[in-house]
């Protein structure tokens, strides 16, 4: 419990995965719960140890009920670069803040965690004994203690260069673990209905967190595919809508994406996916619709738009076109009237998406989407811009040696007015991103060059 | 398709603009599917509902007991909210059509899913 007027420092133990995505996730979640991300440690970069100041333990607990990037959070009682510094830091921690967790009626245990090094049992016991100076009055209970205290020793990040002594040592009271188990329980491997580009579970939860999704929100995915992104939002209590231009995918028909399976079964559709996880009550509707020509009425009713638009590589980038361009071989279902044009340029698609978000998001609502980039040519100016949307974060995930995708998060900060939809034409970056229209070609050009090189070297 | 969704949809046929709302709803197959009642969510939806459109659609589906408009203090009125919950979320059109009131263009609803795709000639530029 926090004393009034005192600053409460917490230690977050982060998972070492999706490194760039972690800070925006924590920041978004803290702002969702009324906290603010203030840190006394500068930038975190690759470290799994983050010290931050949070106004109350409630906010810390709420944060952990959502994050998939953080493993655990501790109330930080002391830290230092050596055992002596740690002990001195602990002696400076106000006793009145320790006492509620150490009194004689309570039970506790102390754990030692070391990162990038293994200690013997003997070494661990020595470290616990060294903490005897702390006013522990309760009884030790290793099975079900009321309070768990942890010593965390940081031996760096290089497994090939493990130091004799830790870089940092922390001591804190364990408060809660994060939601990393969701990654396994919602794994795409076990999901009933998947597509060729279904989003990895961890990333789908990160996206929902970047989007500040909360209970009773309405979340929309205009490129819904098999509905993976909707699942994460529904898990957090939001009601969900999806649209997709592909009739078969929306209906759950056609060829299966699983190896060894030819056609999709009756339990394979977006609604069934939500049902699999007990989230069917959050299913509003899905529609067959062209995201560039939306059928939504004028108004603001989406709290978040979270989506993974097609990049034109494994799923084609399409929009409706004239009769002459009807795609051949649509598949099992003949009513899937999809007159298509294959020339929907990526830059158009993102500007349509931003305009749509600016029009239909509630004020403060967020747009979260993936932007494919060709790394050798990428500059920050290429990230699509809109006068009503503020850029919150831009996190890269490498796809190949010369391509990547960036998770862009934007927040609606201004009411949409009619002239706003043409603003991008005046923007300097309208031209730079045009290069990405041939993203498909650039993606494959790297592969062609590599294959040619390999063939050449195998002939030598 | 739920009636909440119908209330948010508009025709995007070229030249139609705001006269494309609301779409005229006809159903050949309707089902009622129970959904867990969440008063907070329903209360949040009430200000977004276009009542005339909702009443017209409910009428076409021959639904009874549809409130004619939001009542004073609806946020705390469980009876009202339960009725709205039922109308907006539990009634689903499985087979039917949505018709643009201005152009007459028909969008089919199949297996509960509306198909809003148009040809290029029909859409707004």
UniProtKB/TrEMBL annotation, chain A:
EC category name: transferase
Domain tRNA (guanine(10)-N(2))-methyltransferase TRMT11 N-terminal residues, every copy: 9-180
Chief place where the protein resides: cytoplasm
Catalytic activity: guanosine(10) in tRNA + S-adenosyl-L-methionine = N(2)-methylguanosine(10) in tRNA + S-adenosyl-L-homocysteine + H(+)
An annotated GO cellular component: cytoplasm
EC number of the protein: 2.1.1.214
Cellular compartment(s): Cytoplasm
Limits of the Ribosomal RNA large subunit methyltransferase K/L-like methyltransferase domain: 190-320
Record's keyword terms, sorted: Cytoplasm, Methyltransferase, RNA-binding, S-adenosyl-L-methionine, Transferase, tRNA processing, tRNA-binding
CDD domains with a match to the protein in the record: AdoMet_MTases
GO molecular function annotation: tRNA (guanine(10)-N2)-methyltransferase activity; tRNA binding
One GO BP: tRNA processing
Role description: Catalytic subunit of the TRMT11-TRM112 methyltransferase complex, that specifically mediates the S-adenosyl-L-methionine-dependent N(2)-methylation of guanosine nucleotide at position 10 (m2G10) in tRNAs. This is one of the major tRNA (guanine-N(2))-methyltransferases.
Assembly and interaction partners: Part of the heterodimeric TRMT11-TRM112 methyltransferase complex; this complex forms an active tRNA methyltransferase, where TRMT112 acts as an activator of the catalytic subunit TRMT11.
Record-stated family: Belongs to the class I-like SAM-binding methyltransferase superfamily. TRM11 methyltransferase family.
UniProt-recorded name of the protein: tRNA (guanine(10)-N(2))-methyltransferase TRMT11
Species whose genome carries this gene: Pipistrellus kuhlii (Kuhl's pipistrelle)
UniProtKB/TrEMBL annotation, chain B:
Listed SUPFAM superfamilies: Trm112p-like
Entry-linked Gene3D superfamilies: 2.20.25.10
Subcellular location: Cytoplasm, Perinuclear region; Nucleus, Nucleoplasm
A GO-annotated cellular component: nucleoplasm
A Gene Ontology BP annotation from the UniProt entry: tRNA methylation
UniProt keyword Transferase present: yes
Matching InterPro entries: Trm112, Trm112-like
PANTHER family referenced in this protein's UniProt entry, alphabetically: MULTIFUNCTIONAL METHYLTRANSFERASE SUBUNIT TRM112-LIKE PROTEIN (PTHR12773:SF0), UPF0315 PROTEIN-RELATED (PTHR12773)
UniProt family annotation: Belongs to the TRM112 family.
Full protein name: Multifunctional methyltransferase subunit TRM112-like protein
């Amino acid at each position: 419990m926090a004393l009034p007027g005192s600053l409460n420092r917490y230690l977050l133990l982060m998972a070492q995965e999706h490194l760039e995505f972690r800070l925006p996730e924590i920041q978004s979640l803290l702002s969702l719960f009324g906290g603010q991300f203030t840190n006394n440690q500068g930038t975190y970069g690759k470290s799994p140890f983050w010290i931050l100041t949070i106004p109350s333990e409630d906010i810390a607990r709420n944060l952990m009920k959502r994050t998939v990037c953080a493993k655990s959070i501790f109330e930080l009682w002391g830290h230092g670069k050596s055992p002596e510094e740690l002990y001195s830091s602990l002696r400076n921690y106000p006793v009145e803040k320790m006492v509620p967790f150490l009194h004689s009626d309570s039970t506790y245990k102390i754990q030692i965690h070391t990162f990038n090094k293994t200690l013997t049992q003997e070494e661990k016991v020595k470290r616990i004994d060294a903490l005897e100076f702390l006013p522990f009055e309760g009884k030790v209970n290793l099975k079900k203690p009321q309070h768990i205290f942890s010593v965390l020793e940081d031996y760096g990040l290089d497994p090939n260069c493990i130091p004799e002594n830790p870089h940092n040592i922390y001591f804190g009271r364990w408060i809660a673990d994060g939601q990393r188990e969701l990654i396994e329980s919602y794994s795409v491997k076990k999901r009933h209905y998947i597509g060729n580009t279904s989003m990895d579970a961890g990333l789908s939860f990160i996206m929902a967190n970047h989007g500040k999704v909360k209970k009773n929100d309405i979340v929309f995915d205009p490129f819904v595919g098999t509905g993976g992104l909707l699942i994460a939002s529904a898990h957090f209590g939001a009601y969900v809508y999806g649209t997709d231009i592909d009739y078969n995918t929306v209906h759950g028909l056609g060829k299966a994406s699983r190896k060894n399976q030819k056609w999709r079964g009756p339990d394979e559709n977006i609604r069934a996916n939500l049902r699999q996880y007990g989230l069917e009550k959050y299913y509003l509707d899905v529609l067959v619709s062209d995201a560039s020509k939306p059928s939504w009425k004028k108004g603001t009713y989406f709290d978040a738009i979270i989506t993974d638009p097609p990049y034109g590589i494994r799923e084609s980038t399409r929009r409706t076109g004239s009769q002459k361009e009807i795609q051949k071989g649509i598949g099992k279902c003949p009513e899937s009237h999809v007159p298509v044009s294959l020339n929907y340029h990526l830059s158009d698609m993102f500007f349509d998406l931003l305009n749509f978000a600016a029009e239909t998001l509630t004020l403060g609502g967020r747009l979260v989407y993936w932007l494919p980039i060709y790394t050798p040519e990428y500059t920050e100016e290429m990230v699509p811009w809109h006068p009503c949307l503020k850029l919150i974060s831009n996190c890269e995930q490498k796809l190949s040696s010369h391509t990547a995708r960036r998770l862009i998060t934007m927040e609606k900060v201004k009411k949409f007015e009619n002239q706003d939809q043409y603003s991008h034409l005046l923007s300097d970056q309208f031209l730079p991103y045009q290069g990405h229209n041939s993203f498909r070609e650039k993606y494959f050009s790297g592969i062609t060059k590599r294959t040619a090189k390999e063939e050449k070297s195998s002939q030598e | 398709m739920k009636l909440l969704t119908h209330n948010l949809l508009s025709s995007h046929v070229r030249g139609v603009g705001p006269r494309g709302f609301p779409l005229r709803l006809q159903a050949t197959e309707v089902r009622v599917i129970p959904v867990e009642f969440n008063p907070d969510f329903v209360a949040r939806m009430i200000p977004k509902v276009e009542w005339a459109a909702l009443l017209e659609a409910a009428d076409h589906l021959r639904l009874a007991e549809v409130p004619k408009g939001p009542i004073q203090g609806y946020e705390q009125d469980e009876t009202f909210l339960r009725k709205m919950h039922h109308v907006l979320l539990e009634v689903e059109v499985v087979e039917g059509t949505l018709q643009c009131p201005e152009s007459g263009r028909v969008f089919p609803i199949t297996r509960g899913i509306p198909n809003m795709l148009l040809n290029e000639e029909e859409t707004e530029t």
